Sequence to fold (324 residues):
Amino acid sequence: MIGIFKKREKQESDSKGFFSKLKKGLSKTRSGLKGRIDRVISGKKEIDEQILEEIEEVLFTADLGVKTAQELIDMVRDGVGRKELQNPEALKYALKQKMLEFLDVPEIEHPVPSHGEPLVIMVIGINGVGKTTTIAKAGYMMGKEGKKVMFVAGDTFRAAAIEQLQIWGERVGAEVISQKQGADPSAVVYDGITSAMSRGFDVVLIDTAGRLHTKKNLMDELKKIKRVAGKRLPGAPHEVWLVLDATTGQNAIMQAEMFQKEIGITDIILTKLDGTSKGGVVVGISNQLKIPVRYIGIGEGMDDLREFDPVQFVNAIFEESKTN
Ligand SMILES: Nc1nc2c(ncn2[C@@H]2O[C@H](COP(=O)(O)OP(=O)(O)OP(=O)(O)O)[C@@H](O)[C@H]2O)c(=O)[nH]1
Ligand SMILES: [Mg+2]
Fold:
């Protein structure tokens, strides 16, 4: 039987070290957003039309996406019009609060495995966004929690993709189920889930291709994998993680819309937040897609994936030292 809906466990995080790493990684985003806003309002006592126009420009070029930037601007103009946002500090505070509101996206309901069944997670996204690395990092994290983790090499398009997953599996202590290059990914997934069920695995992470001959091929293949997984284990894949590369900015929003429409997603994983100036895209994705950003990647190491914490993120951008 498929369980009802799961309540996400809050991951314990070693906040301090991670927060400083997050802050460092987001320094370009911070200077592009908060830094520019500070320059616009510095020394000003009141918000006038010229300031409003300059703020508009900052927001429209901060990779938030047009819709989100517009909503922030409307909020600011409204507040100024109603004389609620008259000084620069109030304006900054209001922007921060509104971004937090956008980032507060409820979990998407999805089936959970019944007792004794593995949690099956399908990981999708276009090529190069960080799917395989995310699987490695997530597997490492789950292994540390005492879970028995399996990786399934569902990207059979390239031999190197299978090898890459095998290397990661060895490194993080996860079992890897694979077949040779060119094998039907759905067959590999079917075998993987069967093996995980009979050998008591807790989690199955399915790696998938990011590029096939055509976009239609890719979508058809992902749909088939999803279907076959559900046939083998009703409810599977319980979660579908879409991996997006933060450095692609607003393009990531378009990718999310496409995968959401074609496949359906339960969680977004945003990688490469370290060093990008386009971190504002997190706010745009959350507000536009209403799919929660579950984890963020801030480096290439196996320890560089963390649960996304909106408060921490906004504080890192607006440079405050508190983590909660
Ligand atoms: N800086 C940084 N690099 C990352 C992060 N996540 C992944 N990468 C790098 O991005 C590159 C692509 O990662 P992969 O995991 O191979 O991406 P993929 O989506 O599996 O790619 P395909 O299999 O080709 O579709 C690698 O060099 C990773 O090390 C991150 O959070 N930060
Ligand atoms: Mg890959």
